[in-house]
Amino acid sequence: MDSMIRDISLASQGLEKINWVKEFMPVLNVLNSEFSEIKPLQGKKVVVTMHLEAKTAYLALVLKNAGGDIAVTGSNPLSTQDDVAAALVEQGIKVFAWYNCSAEEYDHFLHKALDTKPDIIVDDGGDLVSLLHGERSDLAANILGGSEETTTGVLRLRALEASGRLKFPMVAVNDAYCKYLFDNRYGTGQSTWDGIMRSTNLTVAGKTVVVAGYGWCGKGVAMRAKGLGANVLITEIDPVKAIEAVFDGFKVMPMAEAAKHGDIFATLTGCMDVIREEHIKVMKNGAILANAGHFDVEINKEHLKKLAVSCRRARRNIEEFLMEDGRKIYLLAEGRLVNLAAADGHPTEIMDLSFALQALSVMYLLHSHKNLEAKVYNVPAEVDSRVAGLKLRAMDIDIDTLTPEQTAYLSKA
Question: Which pTM was predicted?
Answer without folding.
Answer: 0.91
